């Protein structure tokens, strides 16, 4: 049984009920998510061979502080960094360190800022210098998977429609969908109900209703979908060491579809790749 609750009367913890937010909440999410998007835009100019991921982390921290926000990941469940930087075969939750990026790497940078109590959550892939065609193709497939998932969002559909749209496309492109991680409700809480699976069937999962806010963040592998978490308790990698990619947007369900809160103001949702308009 799925329960829905008006967000204004919901407790400040994840109870399993799905929150329905009002127009004022959507405005708060726009501000937080656009701050995150602007930070991700700014990173497009600094991600280059030789840059260490700790410098990316410091950039994200400073950007947030300069704009009255703080990174949600910092000290979250013991995590000590302001962002996640996942390189090549790292699926997600890569921890920034002093190792430099190398020519040909691909890196996912995941940023969540908390602004006035609202969580703006998004991630993008960045090519480091010139990358191989196989890596570029993976980025293209992963981004298209995300956008197909978003296109399935509308009142009356079920969360499974998002997963079906992603899985059908990614597997037709001979890639695989990671099952171990999923999207999630977001708003006043960093991680909330419902879980948004990136695979499944259209008639499965909770019904989407106007006022729901959640992330869609498919992780797509060139090889098999299986992952393992390293001894640090955070870093997830592909078991077969194949390349992995992820893009993430935060969306809110509207009366006739959805609003993407984290769209790039500079048109850089796919940094380093050809413009969709081109």
Report on this model:
There is one protein chain. The protein has 4 helices and 17 strands. It is globular, with a radius of gyration of 17 Å. The strands form 6 sheets. Strands 3, 4, 6 and 7 form a 4-stranded antiparallel beta sheet that branches. It is of the alpha+beta class. Strand 6 (about 105-115) and strand 7 (about 120-125) form a beta hairpin. The chain has helices at about 25-45, 55-65, 135-150, 160-170, and strands at about 5, 20, 70, 85, 90, 105-115, 120-125, 175, 185, 190-195, 215, 220, 225-230, 235-240, 245, 250-255, 260. Helix 3 (about 135-150) packs antiparallel against helix 4 (about 160-170).
Which features would summarize this protein structure in a list?
single chain, 278 residues, alpha+beta, four-stranded antiparallel beta sheet, three-stranded antiparallel beta sheet, 25% strand, hydrolase, metal-binding
Short description:
The chain is α+β, with helices and mostly antiparallel strands and 278 residues long. The chain has helices at residues 23-43, 53-66, 133-151, 159-172; strands spanning 4-6, 18-20, 70-71, 84-87, 90-92, 106-115, 118-127, 176-177, 183-185, 192-196, 213-216, 219-221, 227-229, 236-238, 244-246, 249-253, 258-260. Strands 3, 4, 6 and 7 form a 4-stranded antiparallel β-sheet that branches. It has a 3-stranded antiparallel β-sheet with strand order 5-14-13, with no helix packed on it.
């Amino acid at each position: 049984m799925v329960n829905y609750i008006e967000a204004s009367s919901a407790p400040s913890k994840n109870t399993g009920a799905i929150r329905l937010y009002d127009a004022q909440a959507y405005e708060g999410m726009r501000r937080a998510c656009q701050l995150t998007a602007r930070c991700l835009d700014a990173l497009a100019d600094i991600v280059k061979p030789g840059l260490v991921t700790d410098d990316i982390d410091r950039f994200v921290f400073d950007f947030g502080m300069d704009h009255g926000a703080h990174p949600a990941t910092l000290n979250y469940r013991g995590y000590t960094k302001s962002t996640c930087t996942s390189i090549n075969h790292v699926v997600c939750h890569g921890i920034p360190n002093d190792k430099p990026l190398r020519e040909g790497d691909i890196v996912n940078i995941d940023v969540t800022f908390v602004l006035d109590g609202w969580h703006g959550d998004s991630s993008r892939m960045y090519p480091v210098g010139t990358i191989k065609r196989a890596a570029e193709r993976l980025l293209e497939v992963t981004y298209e998977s995300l956008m197909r998932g978003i296109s399935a969002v509308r009142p009356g559909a079920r969360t499974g429609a998002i997963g079906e749209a992603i899985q059908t496309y990614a597997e037709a492109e001979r890639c695989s969908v990671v099952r171990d991680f999923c999207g999630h409700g977001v708003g006043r809480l960093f991680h909330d109900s419902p879980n948004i699976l990136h695979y499944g069937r259209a008639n499965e999962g909770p019904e989407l209703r106007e006022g729901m806010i959640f992330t869609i963040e498919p992780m797509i592998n060139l090889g098999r979908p299986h992952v393992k978490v390293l001894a640090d308790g955070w870093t997830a990698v592909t078991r077969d060491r194949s390349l992995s990619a992820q893009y993430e947007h935060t969306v809110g369900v509207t009366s006739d579809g959805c609003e993407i809160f984290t769209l790039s103001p500079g048109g850089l949702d796919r940094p380093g790749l050809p413009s969709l308009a081109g």
